[in-house]
Design goal:
With about 80 residues, the chain is of the alpha+beta class. Helix content is about 25%, strand content about 20%. The longest helix has 17 residues. The model has no long low-confidence stretch (mean pLDDT about 90).
């Protein structure tokens, strides 16, 4: 059963990906996000987490998923 998790406001870097949310697809998306963060000199400020926006009966190619990583605020 899906659950909602409330988080406090924070600055995050996000990578959107489609398809089923498997460990492999999430780790690939997270790696792409970390490469982008490094290129843009953003530092992680917490553990990565994921967000899924579609019900389970949505076809994989139409699903919208995200991996998010909290980042440090700019000085």
């Amino acid at each position: 059963m899906p659950r909602r998790v409330w988080k406090t406001a924070q600055r995050v870097a996000v990578h959107r990906f489609s398809g089923s949310h498997t460990k492999d697809s999430e780790s690939q998306a997270l790696e792409k996000l970390r490469v982008w963060m490094k290129q843009n000199q953003l530092k992680e400020a917490g553990a990565a987490f994921s967000a899924y926006y579609d019900p389970p009966w949505t076809p994989g190619f139409m699903r919208r998923n995200e991996v998010l990583v909290p980042v440090e605020k700019e000085p």
